[in-house]
């Protein structure tokens, strides 16, 4: 049976006639209906339209056409991407009465043009404001590896659906870590592309100067093809890994890690021949600047609707948006000035390194009934702080690939691979080498939870 995590293998089966697109789609919908009840990654299934699209794919193949590299592959979208004919809620009842989208989001349209079929919308933190996918309107998304634990957020439904084997490919967004955090906690591949390299049209915004859209996938090759389709063309050829200069981020990025995570990253560094450790200055201020910019831009975006419908928001989201809208303009100006300075410090590291590595989260997924992580010896809110290692890096607009670490013997842990803008090819080259060495790769579910 074809690996349910492998988008390219599914597409090959469909193109070569071993399976029909309709049979794949029917099996996908059935699996979601039965198995997602314990995970809550899906908010809506686009059943009839998805089957109709699968029928069109099968007719094209019968006529001798090639529908594309993702022929018949089912995919899900974080519920902030427009899908023509569907209401985009961005995880909130506030938008539930909005008119249906008239067009697909740009990346959804590109994936469909490559043969992929949207089959479901996926759960998220309301308006993408959080790291937990604990949604007051649609419920909490649970981690497929341990349903008593968080999946991470805000793209938690997207990561969990891939981790559970329900969908081989999903879409998410990343403002401060909303792809990298859940990919890490759920043990799947995720990519935050270079800021501006993938179109955001048709994706409900959060903080426009930080928002990026990107894919999750069950395999690295699937992630690469999805990214290339979304970006509108193939990457440049992958560089030789032996030619890549790799360094390890220390300081802020070396503190607060669990012992297991630190050991796994040590193993990666040792495999690469021992890595120089480099540090960024003022990382705490960078994280604070990211908080301020996100709050101000999100609050300003929502302020007109908050004035009319504040009580319909999740109280936790509402309060943070209102606080952001009330920030003084001078504070935001200072945050952006600092951002420009910090971006220069980050880019300076790439004069002597091609790829940086850093942890994605401090450790494994926190329990739902105790949603905290330990920072500087104190328990703090997971919903607000799971982005400890991702938020500062968001300021620089860099491409970052979240690679699941393997061999840790427990719940998933993630590694950020970081490159200069436009250097996604270096990330995929290094990730491929680490996967070949058995250091990174999709983390299988416990035997009791396999399909």
UniProtKB/TrEMBL annotation:
One of its GO terms (molecular function) is hydrolase activity. Keywords: Hydrolase. Residues 25-427 form the Amidase domain. It holds the Pfam family Amidase. It comes from Gluconacetobacter takamatsuzukensis. PANTHER family: GLUTAMYL-TRNA(GLN) AMIDOTRANSFERASE, TRANSAMIDASE. It comes from the Bacteria. InterPro entries: Amidase (IPR000120), Amidase_dom (IPR023631), AS_sf (IPR036928), Carboxybiuret_hydro_AtzE (IPR014087). This is AtzE family amidohydrolase. The lineage of its organism: Bacteria, Pseudomonadati, Pseudomonadota, Alphaproteobacteria, Acetobacterales.
């Amino acid at each position: 049976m074809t690996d349910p995590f492998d988008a390219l293998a599914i597409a090959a089966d469909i193109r070569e006639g071993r399976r029909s697109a309709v049979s794949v789609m029917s099996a996908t919908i059935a699996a979601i209906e039965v198995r997602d009840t314990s995970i809550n990654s899906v908010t809506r299934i686009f059943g009839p339209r998805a089957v109709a699209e699968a029928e069109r794919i099968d007719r094209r193949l019968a006529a001798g056409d090639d529908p594309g590299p993702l022929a018949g592959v089912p995919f899900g979208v974080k519920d902030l991407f427009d899908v023509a004919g569907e209401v985009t809620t961005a995880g909130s009842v506030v938008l539930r009465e909005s008119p249906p989208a008239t067009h697909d989001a740009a990346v959804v349209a590109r994936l469909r043009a490559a043969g992929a079929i949207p089959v479901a919308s996926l759960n998220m933190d309301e308006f993408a404001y959080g790291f937990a996918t604990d949604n007051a309107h649609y419920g909490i998304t649970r981690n497929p590896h341990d349903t008593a634990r968080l999946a991470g957020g805000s793209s938690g439904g997207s990561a969990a659906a891939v981790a559970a084997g329900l969908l081989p490919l999903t879409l998410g967004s990343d403002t401060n870590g909303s792809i990298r955090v859940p990919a890490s906690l759920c043990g799947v591949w995720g990519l935050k592309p270079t800021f501006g390299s993938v179109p955001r049209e048709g994706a409900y915004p959060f903080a426009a100067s930080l928002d990026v859209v990107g894919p999750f996938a069950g395999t690295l090759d699937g992630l690469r093809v999805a990214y290339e389709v979304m970006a509108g063309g193939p990457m440049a050829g992958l560089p030789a890994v032996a030619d890549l200069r790799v360094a390890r981020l220390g300081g802020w990025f070396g503190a607060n890690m669990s012992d297991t995570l630190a050991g796994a990253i040590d193993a990666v560094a040792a495999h690469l021949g021992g890595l120089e450790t480099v540090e960024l200055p003022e990382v705490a201020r960078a994280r604070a600047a990211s908080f301020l910019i996100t709050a101000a831009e999100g609050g300003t975006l929502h302020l007109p609707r908050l004035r009319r419908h504040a009580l319909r928001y999740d109280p936790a989201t509402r309060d943070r948006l209102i606080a952001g809208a009330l920030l003084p303009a001078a504070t935001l100006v200072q945050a952006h000035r600092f951002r420009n300075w910090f971006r220069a410090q980050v880019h300076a590291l790439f004069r002597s390194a091609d790829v940086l590595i850093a942890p994605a989260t401090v450790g494994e997924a926190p329990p739902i009934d105790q949603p905290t992580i330990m920072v500087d010896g104190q328990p703090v809110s997971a919903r607000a702080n799971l982005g400890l290692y991702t938020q500062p890096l968001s300021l620089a607009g860099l491409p970052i690939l979240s690679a699941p670490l393997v061999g840790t013997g427990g719940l998933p842990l993630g590694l950020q691979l970081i490159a200069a803008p436009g250097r996604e090819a270096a990330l995929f080259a290094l990730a491929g080498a680490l996967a070949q060495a058995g250091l990174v790769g999709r983390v299988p579910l416990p035997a009791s939870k396999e399909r």
